[in-house]
Design brief:
- There is one protein chain.
- The protein has 153 residues and is mainly α.
- The chain has one domain: Winged helix-like DNA-binding domain superfamily/Winged helix DNA-binding domain (Arc Repressor Mutant, subunit A).
- Helix content is 53%, strand content 5%.
- The protein has a two-stranded antiparallel ribbon with strand order 1-2.
- Helix 1 packs across helix 2, helix 2 packs across helix 3 and helix 4 crosses helix 5.
- It is elongated.
């Protein structure tokens, strides 16, 4: 099954950006997101359009957060990505003639709609600040004295 990991990847990048004093380049973010810089620029451009990030050109330029971590939820980021499809499960045929398949579609569609609504609601309850706080709790538990905010194992 193909997974859409854009939400996870962009949240990862945004938290790295929150830890930076200055701007962070597309190339550095691409390393965090395990992708290429063109994908980062395209994704960040969409986030810039809604005011979540801003870009700085020239030497020492890059991307910066332009939002309050307390005010932005995972739902905001999910919506900014175009509300990607959450489930790979779907109906075999959308408008079947078979009454059995109609019954199956009805049950599956209702369950999937309810599950998606619950997930999207819960995404709206988690802020970027909460993710940042969780990261800092994990970092302090590790006992890191170096201030390293990279992907240490």
């Amino acid at each position: 099954m193909i997974r859409d990991s854009r939400l996870s990847a962009i949240l990862h990048a945004l938290l790295h950006m929150a830890e930076q004093e200055g701007p962070i380049t597309s190339e550095a973010l691409a390393r965090c997101m395990n992708t290429n810089a063109a994908v980062v620029r395209r994704t960040m451009s969409g986030l810039r359009q809604i005011g979540l990030v801003r870009s700085e050109k020239g030497h020492g330029g890059g991307w910066r957060l332009a939002c309050d971590l307390q005010a932005v939820t995972l739902r905001d980021i999910y919506d900014a990505l175009g509300a990607p499809q959450i489930f790979a499960i779907g109906n075999k045929t959308e408008n079947p003639a078979c009454l059995v398949e109609q019954a199956v579609n009805s049950a599956l569609s209702k369950a999937l709609q309810e599950a998606e609504a619950l997930l999207v609601q819960r995404l709206g309850n988690v802020t970027l600040a909460a993710l940042s706080a969780d990261f800092h709790r994990r970092l302090s538990t590790r006992g890191s004295q170096s201030g390293d905010t990279t992907h240490a194992a």
